[in-house]
Structures
1.
Amino acid sequence: MPLWNDFKNAEIPNAGSGKWFKIINNSKQYGVEIKNEELVISRYREKHCLQYDYLDLKIVGTDYGEWGGELKVVYPDSTEIVLKKCNVKSIFEYEESLYFLEGLEHLYLNTGYLYQLIYDGTNFSITSCLDLKECPIAFYIFDSHLYVISSENLFSLSIESGSFKKNIIFNNFPFSAFVPNSLVVYKGDFIIGMKGGLGRIDYENIKNVQYMQLKKI
């Protein structure tokens, strides 16, 4: 697996140029995550199913794009109940509550929503929290802030006066065509996994944006 120091700042080629097509047709995608407080960069592989363990339950979400998906709960006795038919992007806990993100970006569609899952000890109910107006791809929680990326934007979700608000941090990635897939905050930077390399946005100065490619050996 490559390390952060194995990447260098690279010029983002003009859309439609030969170098641009070489990147978007590159089959190698890099994903990012934090393990033991260190940045881990690996070959990204798309997942269509995710599982979140909650108490003694398993909450399972699937996402098959235009073919749909679902959110279901699996009880200890193996009973399964479908909670919602939707494309599930993420399931997570935030501020001591359970949430999930759903979304679909396909052709002219670009939709996304944030929901809260409420468990009364027996059954689940779903509360709509916010229409995101775009499909969420990945999220990361840092310093109690919830950050989300779509194919083009980086935004935060925060609770203000009892309701979630969306705040755009960076609008229209210069590398959006390179299919962003994952997000972390590492050593003062937003790091975004994507095709052909990584995106870097300075956490304190969002105007400082770089496209990082693997150094040639």
Note: DSSP finds one helix and 19 strands in the chain.
2.
Amino acid sequence: MTSASDVWRSPGGDHFRLSWSQEAGPSRVTLRPAVYDADTGQWSTDRNALPIEIDPTVFEETYVQVPRERLRDPRITRLTGLVNELLADYERSTGRPPADADAIRAALDDVAEIPGEARKRRHAAASSAARQGFHRGRGR
């Protein structure tokens, strides 16, 4: 089952999101061009571009769903880029990588997991509050 938030790659390498349209009817699939933001790791629909309509059979046979990526904090992405540049500069100037390069990259990967972990904690807290009635004004 697909949803409008899914991103699909065309045979030509372009990316699209499904767009539900009453005019297209069941015999056509409507797609809107999508653009990728490397800083956040998220796709967004290009609302200025015209949608395209294709045959459902062609869509199913030739379009490939793009796997979802975890949310990324742009600050962490920027930090990772800067650290990678520093490690590359060090290797260029000395001819060898720093002894602790693997530890640095592993620590950056741990930091990159923080947004996902924080989102899970917020969801758990909101679920707990809803079960306890805080959203209905019945605090315990």
Note: The radius of gyration is 22 Å.
3.
Amino acid sequence: MSEVKVLYSGTPGLNTHVSPTNVYTAPAGKKVIIKSIVVNSVDPADQSFSIQLAGYAFAFRHAIKPNQTLILPAAGLVLQPGEVLALGNSQGIYIRITGEIVDSNMLLLPDVIHRANGLTTSASGSRYTNSTKDLLVKSVAFCNKTNGPVSVSLYMGGIGIISAKIINGYDTLTIPFLDQLLTKGENLDVWASAAGSIVYYATGIAVNT
């Protein structure tokens, strides 16, 4: 069974953009597939916001201009049972998030396959080896939690998908519809130019089982 619900709608607590506040917890036995994230500023000055899934930053102190609306590419982001969605706000920001709540054992739906709260500078330091079954990697996201530019790289089966891509300070790079097959036995290698600066999150679907 599945149900589409508004997971959060409102203004997170003021000055929580550095330490986000928990606003939603995935129910027991369910996982939540994030469908849409909309952020709207009603403040006359530049502000910032943060979004975390299970403690992994999807956006951190991300800038938003006065009266700007951002529709974030959240396709494929997943909360496992019991994991928490947390939001942060400097001031004057509305956030609305919609998700699909599904049974955690349902097949052919996105799941978390690999994530790290701080990538290393080594290709093998944050390596994921697909040892069970073929995986269709659906989405990847890289959040820079520092105020300076950092480059990221992602290789699948030894082939470059992203090579030394620069992510500016407090910015996020998201590829929501990657749809690349990581076959059994292949590695997913991910690294950054500055250790600990990049939060990384990847989802996928087990296929060809």
Note: The CA atoms of residues 144 and 170 lie 5 Å apart.
